Amino acid sequence: MTDALVERLRAAGCVFAEDEARLLRSAAGSDVELDALVARRVAGEPLEYVVGFAEFCGLRIAVGPGVFVPRVRTGFLAERAVALTAASAVVVDLCCGTGAVAAAVLAAVPDAEVHAADVDPVAVALARRNLPGGHAHEGDLDAPLPARLRGRVDVLVANAPYVPTREIDLMPAEARLFEARAALDGGPDGTGVQQRVAAAAPRWLAPGGHLLIETSTRQAPLTRAAVERHGLAARVVVDEEREATVVIGVRPAR
């Protein structure tokens, strides 16, 4: 039997129409509400905004209009962070958006002390919902972090904006038209915010601590150079299946 909802979504260009139909039905409390949600999706609004969450690393992450939606490829960043996080470790997620990476780390290592920070108050409010056992701070980059964390952070992770300014207009409409530009724009070469993260890292990392920055394959040499410029030994790791690239820096043990 043909599923009218699936066909409607497919006609609107939704590639994964069956999965989207399932999520829309689960989010709707009535047929009237379902019709309203479907109308928003068919009009081009990102599915995650319509249903109010994104699926990320096995979690349901609360999202909202204008806030960066966690990507599948960022799961690789979260997994690498988890692998480096021991029990009772101190973890910081800069440019956290919804706090998705921090939430994934906390879910995997519940004894860790997890902090997240973002300049966008809407994103921080969502991060607080997604991090009931963590701490979300509002402010520019590392400025709002508690001073007591200086030199004590074991894992500092950042999915900072890294789209070159001139390429934002080439992005899919769901990102380009709905997500905040500040969550996408990485400056002329895409590494402007990454360079600020790399410069801040030595203030916070414990000896032997790790810095992880999501980037692109094309930009990885620039990201790595920025990390090395601030005294960290750096390497690039790649997950080809998810088209994910992460630069990992390590602060010398002493």
UniProtKB/TrEMBL annotation:
UniProt-listed Enzyme Commission number(s): 2.1.1.297
Residue ranges of the TM segments: none
Enzyme class: transferase
Domain Methyltransferase small, chain residue ranges per copy: 87-185
Pfam families found in the cross-reference section: MTS (PF05175)
Keywords: Methyltransferase, S-adenosyl-L-methionine, Transferase
Record field: catalytic activity: L-glutaminyl-[peptide chain release factor] + S-adenosyl-L-methionine = N(5)-methyl-L-glutaminyl-[peptide chain release factor] + S-adenosyl-L-homocysteine + H(+)
InterPro entries (UniProt xref): HemK-like (IPR004556), MeTrfrase_put (IPR022446), N5-glutamine_MTase (IPR050320), Small_mtfrase_dom (IPR007848)
Protein name from the UniProt record: peptide chain release factor N(5)-glutamine methyltransferase
Originating species: Pseudonocardia oceani
